[in-house]
């Protein structure tokens, strides 16, 4: 299934009592190792539409695959090694030991804008709170601390879908955790929450240690938080002005590692870095006022680069006009845990009235530690690094194109009336829109969640199939009747659902092949299976897609994962569709987000029109 979850905040366990966050962890199954023949068969099936009518080259690849999986061949040998790893005592997820490192911690491009994902919050119903930066920020802190404590005391209900529990392990990494740069491979440092009852507030590029619990260990109230933030804002004008240290976290990871080592030559800087790493989370008070959906998305995605610390897994921001959002560092968890938190958070904020802030200036803060400004030792080398990082950040951000596509009058409710899976619908909509723009189909990735397994994260769903190719070709062929067009569409939907079901059950081919490659010993000959050009091309994700849906968001997205592709983050609400379209301005093909925006609209309109006509015809026959 796509990455989407259903859960209850007050769930009852199957034994009748209150559920605990980690109570189902021990019963979660281990991630399976797929059968070699099944994975290679699935792989070949996914290649057919990419080869098109070039049967000669397809047969060559098929021959390479046959040799790889033959009895006594390298495929069989690697499969046996992988099965032995999976069967090791205490091993419940053979993939986890490599995936976090390969996919995230060893990746050297900047985490923002290339890896981190963002949510842009919808405005609150109470406009006074929504437009007041410090009020809104105070409530975000208050409710985030509540969510954090529900993880600590395990009162947060575990996620269960159709009686199947999901792994909650990643929730442990949400707070008091930070990614830290390191040579060749970064690491994560986790701190004890009870010993670090504070967050980091960034304002005017300066860092402030702000406590969210009092001296007795109790969470402080909304007015007290407001007073703390007011102290931050009023103290900023008299704070010692330093260069924006946060911009260093926007650099290439090897560059950031070098700059980090320079910083840590100073004991004062070491102390400051420890405070940032150990903090519960980060909240940024921005001095801008984004208004449009696109402006808000840009601010959430990367901002100006300076008023941020991109290595934290939980980072909120509130602009001067109250526009708020979230940015998540990706290395230890995917989007579903933070989706849950942000969705719940905005629902909670909508309950508040301004009366909670009636007397903020008289709020008792005598039992709360004072805010602390983190002053830095800035050497000439660090000053130069900040200047270079700023130039590189602005260059990178300006190279990226962004459009936010929203299509009203077509959402989950109407799509379900057509008896079609909403997620599969938008996947085929994307295929059709891209084909209209380019006249070809290219490798497409959709995230499939494997959290039904212990330590599960994601598997690849390859969205391009022979059925999807026939659908887009037939749809664009004026000689094909409307009835046949819709028949081809439904066949493509069915094929997609079959693949994503397999992927969600841990039976996709991409993670399996990754595991097999890890089994290669140093200096061991590599089979042509891994060297075949189609092996790399078929996982060059020209279209990288994923769904995370919330009625509380006005935006969600990330960057393209390849220089010549698109990042397509989408939400499906009750009555409209939302796709965040990102790409590089210079991509070698002349693609633009604006062009894809146009063709998605055309494709959605045509699909909606024909499906409504079909529905009306069926109703007329009843």
From TrEMBL:
One of its GO terms (biological process) is fatty acid metabolic process. It holds the Pfam family Carn_acyltransf. It comes from the Eukaryota. It is found in: Mitochondrion inner membrane; Peroxisome. One of its GO terms (molecular function) is carnitine O-acetyltransferase activity. The active site is at residue 330. Carnitine acetylase is specific for short chain fatty acids. Carnitine acetylase seems to affect the flux through the pyruvate dehydrogenase complex. It may be involved as well in the transport of acetyl-CoA into mitochondria. Belongs to the carnitine/choline acetyltransferase family. This is Carnitine O-acetyltransferase, mitochondrial. It comes from Pachysolen tannophilus NRRL Y-2460. The lineage of its organism: Eukaryota, Fungi, Dikarya, Ascomycota, Saccharomycotina.
């Amino acid at each position: 299934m796509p990455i989407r979850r259903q859960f209850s905040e007050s769930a009852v366990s199957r034994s009748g009592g209150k559920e605990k966050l980690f109570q189902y962890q021990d019963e979660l199954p281990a991630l399976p190792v797929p059968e070699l023949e099944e994975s290679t068969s699935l792989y070949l099936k996914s290649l057919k539409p990419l080869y098109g009518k070039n049967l000669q080259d397809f047969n060559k690849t098929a021959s390479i695959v046959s040799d790889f999986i033959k009895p006594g061949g390298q495929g069989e040998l690697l499969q046996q090694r992988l099965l032995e790893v999976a069967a090791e005592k205490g091993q419940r997820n053979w993939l986890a030991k490599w995936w976090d490192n390969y996919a995230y911690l060893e990746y050297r491009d900047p985490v923002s804008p290339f890896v981190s994902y963002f949510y842009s919050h919808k405005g609150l119903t109470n406009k006074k709170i929504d437009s007041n930066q410090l009020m809104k920020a105070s409530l975000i802190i208050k409710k985030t601390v509540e969510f954090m404590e529900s993880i600590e005391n395990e009162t947060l209900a575990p996620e269960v879908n159709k009686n199947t529990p999901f792994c909650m392990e990643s929730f442990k990494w949400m707070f008091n955790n930070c990614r830290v740069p390191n040579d060749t491979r970064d690491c994560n440092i986790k701190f004890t929450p009870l010993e670090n009852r504070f967050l980091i507030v960034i304002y005017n590029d300066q860092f402030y240690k702000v406590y969210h619990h009092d001296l007795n260990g109790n969470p402080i109230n909304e007015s007290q938080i407001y007073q703390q933030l007011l102290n931050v804002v009023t103290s900023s004008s008299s704070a010692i002005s330093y260069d924006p240290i946060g911009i260093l976290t926007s650099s290439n990871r090897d560059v950031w590692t070098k700059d980090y080592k320079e910083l840590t030559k100073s004991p004062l800087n070491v102390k400051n870095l420890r405070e940032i790493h150990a903090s519960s989370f980060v909240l940024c008070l921005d001095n801008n006022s984004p208004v449009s959906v696109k402006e808000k998305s840009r601010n959430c995605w990367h901002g100006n680069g300076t008023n941020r610390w991109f290595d934290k897994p939980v980072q909120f921001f509130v602009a001067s006009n109250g526009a708020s959002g979230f940015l998540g560092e990706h290395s230890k968890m995917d989007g579903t845990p933070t989706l849950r938190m942000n969705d719940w958070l905005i629902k909670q904020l909508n309950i508040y009235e301004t009366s909670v802030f009636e007397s903020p200036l008289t709020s008792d803060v005598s039992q709360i530690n004072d805010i602390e400004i983190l002053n830095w030792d800035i050497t000439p080398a660090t000053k130069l690094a900040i200047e270079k990082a700023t130039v590189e950040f602005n260059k990178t951000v300006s190279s990226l194109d962004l459009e936010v596509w929203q299509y009203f009058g077509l959402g989950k409710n109407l799509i379900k009336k057509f008896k079609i899976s909403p997620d599969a619908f938008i996947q085929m909509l994307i295929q059709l829109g891209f084909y209209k723009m380019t006249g070809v189909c290219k490798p497409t990735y959709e995230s499939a969640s494997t959290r039904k397994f212990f330590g599960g994260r994601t598997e690849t769903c390859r969205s391009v199939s022979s059925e999807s190719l026939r659908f887009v070709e037939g749809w664009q062929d004026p000689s094909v009747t409307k009835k046949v067009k819709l028949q081809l569409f439904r066949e493509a939907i069915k094929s997609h659902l079959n693949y994503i079901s397999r992927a969600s059950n841990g039976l996709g081919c991409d993670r399996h092949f990754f595991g097999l490659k890890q089994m290669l010993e140093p200096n061991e000959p590599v089979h042509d299976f891994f060297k075949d050009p189609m092996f790399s091309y078929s996982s060059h994700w020209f279209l990288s897609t994923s769904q995370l849906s919330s009625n509380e968001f006005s935006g969600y997205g990330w960057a393209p994962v390849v220089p010549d592709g698109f990042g397509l983050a989408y939400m499906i609400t009750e009555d409209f569709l939302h796709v965040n379209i990102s790409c590089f301005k210079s991509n070698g093909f002349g693609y633009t987000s604006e062009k894809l925006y146009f063709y998605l609209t055309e494709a959605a309109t045509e699909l909606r029109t024909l499906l409504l006509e079909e529905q009306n015809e069926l109703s007329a026959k009843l």
